[in-house]
């Protein structure tokens, strides 16, 4: 049932939109997305598709080309009825409620406040979010080599210097993966390489280098989370929590920062972070957490076990430019901040 979405003779636009999406990912995130192969699989339901990365399934859902999807959102003023009760589905990209309607009801749905999309748009949005969520698995050594070759055309000196400082390409690959994992674009690769050239003599660990590079990209990192008045609203980690967590981090020459928190304390910290996350969401703000650079990656790791990294951000104080207005929305605090190590 989905084949017509691919067939240009039947008006299908999905192939062209996938090409455009790969170009958009290169522009937005700076990463090279390998070619996307599409196969017809008779084992699947007629309206079902599966996304595989490296041969492993990462997503599976159904779309219905004969209908349009009306996405629920805060602007909806009046409920619209689905074609049938079972055709109220969940948007695979963002988890929103989608009501499937006949195409002739598009105008009615839009007048009631719904965002109306077709099946191809639902697939392409799902694919885009999958690219972002699995960027570290998608971009390998070959893609990094292509990026370096392209950068060498304009910046040969810094590319060669970084190559000498880091003969093992795995260091750069891990660093780029760390950035992409937290939705930091690597499109400014020359600045990243300049930072590696500046610090490569003293620091070789990719985790510690990631912190240094993030500070170099500070303005780029903060920009997406500022409001229209350029203010940054965030939850601040309580100093006592910072002290507790920092005291349970060891620096390993190979693995960088290693967090070894007491399980009971970790669970309480997780709950406190999720409370702050929910408070910001309920207040209509994108959840942003701010803390010291030494514990930033540890806090991000704890939250990411519960929530997609696309849904929050953890920024270090050192990553906030001095001219940015910072507003404390709430504080992440626990009644007892004592680690039973």
Explain what this protein looks like in three dimensions.
By secondary structure, the protein is an alpha/beta fold. The chain is 42% helix and 17% strand. The chain has 13 helices and twelve strands. The strands form four sheets. The protein has a four-stranded antiparallel sheet. Helix 6 crosses helix 8. The longest helix has 20 residues, at 263-282. It starts with 13 loop residues before the first helix and ends in a 9-residue tail after the last strand. Mean pLDDT is 91; it is low at 337-341.
Give the N-terminus to C-terminus distance in angstroms: 57 Å
Oligomer kind: single chain
User: What fraction strand?
Assistant: 15-25%
Helix amount: 40-55%
Number of strands: 12
Report the total helices.
Answer: 13
In the predicted model, the low-confidence regions spanning at least 5 consecutive residues are 337-341
User: Major beta sheet, specifics?
Assistant: 4 strands, antiparallel
Q: What would the average pLDDT be, to the nearest integer?
A: 91
Q: What Rg, in angstroms, do the CA atoms define? A: 23 Å
Structural class determined from secondary elements? alpha/beta
Sequence of secondary-structure elements: HEEEEEHEHHHHHHHHEHEEHEHEE
Spatial arrangement of strands, main beta sheet: 4-5-3-6
Shape estimate: globular
